[in-house]
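S1.2 Input.
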Amino acid sequence: MAAIQRRKDRWQVRIRRRGFLVEVKTFNTRQDAEQWARSVETDMDRGSFLSRSEAEANTLEHLIERYITDVMPTLRSGSDEISRLRATCRTRLAKLSMAALTPKAVAAYRDERLKQVKPATVIRELAYL
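S1.3 Output.
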């Protein structure tokens, strides 16, 4: 069952269901909060619900930085690749949350990069994604 509370000037929905993690989201209007709660509960009932909260909380830049600190030191050719990954962190694509990372966004990044560098470079950069 969804619990909807007023939090300052916004509405917070908290859904607790057995077998699922607690889902919490805040909305500007109560109507939006109720609509989201109904859709999430329906998906939970059907068994097709996937939590997006962690994907919405992390950006591609955050994941790349974590990859650089955790994985790259163990690789032999890490120093060359780190500069390529850091360059990717400076793009608009890296500022997107993982939930907003769509094939359309990746295609736009690819087209933009192809204007600046050769296709082989773009292929290497996209291989990390």
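S1.4 Remarks. The chain has a mean pLDDT of 87.
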